Each structure stands twice: as structure tokens, then as C-alpha cells.
TrEMBL record:
Taxonomic classification: Bacteria, Bacillati, Actinomycetota, Actinomycetes, Kitasatosporales
Stated name of the protein: SnoaL-like domain-containing protein
InterPro entries linked to this entry: NTF2-like_dom_sf (IPR032710), SnoaL-like (IPR037401)
Pfam family, one: SnoaL_2
Domain SnoaL-like, residue spans: 22-130
Amino acid sequence: MALPERETLPAADRRDRNIDSLRRYFRLLEEGAIDEWSTLWAADGTQLVPYATGALPREINGRDDIRVLYRNIASGFERLRYLLLEFEPMADPDLMLARWRPLCQLVGGGIYTNESFGLFRFDAEGKIAHFVEYFNPAGFVENYDSFSEE
């Protein structure tokens, strides 16, 4: 049940809700459940990838385009798990810093791993409104063609 428009959850409750959303975000990625994962995003959510090069877009706008990109990437993973997963709440309860280290067994053979961190902004409903992702670009760019269908 949604709260009336003027009511918002207390800051501590919003922070807890957003941490739970991030746990679910990474769990669903590990499971390859991209359609369910995409429901964590606001319809007009955006992702910015400052170090993107090549076929990886620097900016993705809208839940539908984000879902397509991640479905494409996930199709190249035989298995994904996170060796490290940490969340750091910020002073603003709707802003979270996450740090993770993926380990991916690629469908085409080989392993992809990297060190990543990102800043997630959540909207009033607890959906991801904006996500800025930072990672070591060398490892990702070298492997992008190995785990995408494009």
C-alpha cells in the first residue's frame, strides 16, 4: 500500500528499504533474473557509465533500455557471483554507495572479474532513479564482446 502523497517514510526506514533493494538487485543479477531485476528501476531511471567505451553505452535512459542492455550482457554469463558486496549508506537516505567484485564464468569460455563501485539514487517509491557505475575499464572493455550478443 502506497503512502499518501505528502507522507514519506522516516529516513531510517527509507535507508533500510534501499539497502534491501540493493541486496535484491545483486541477488537477481546473480540469478540472471533480469526481468524481475528491472522492476527495481523507476520507469524513467538512468544509468551513467563514465568509463564506457566501445559498444558499452555511456548513458542508458529508461528501465526498458536498461533491461535490454543487462539482458544482453547476462546472456554471456554461464555463472555470475559476487566475491565482495558492500553497501555504505550516505547522509541522504535515498543515496547509497555500493562496492562489488563480480566473478563471471563466460559462456564463450574464460573468466571475467573486476572491481566496481556505484552510487545509487532512489526515488520516493524506493525504485532506482539514477545509478552511476565505476569499474576498471580495461577489464570490462577487453571482455565486452565475450559476454554480449551484439
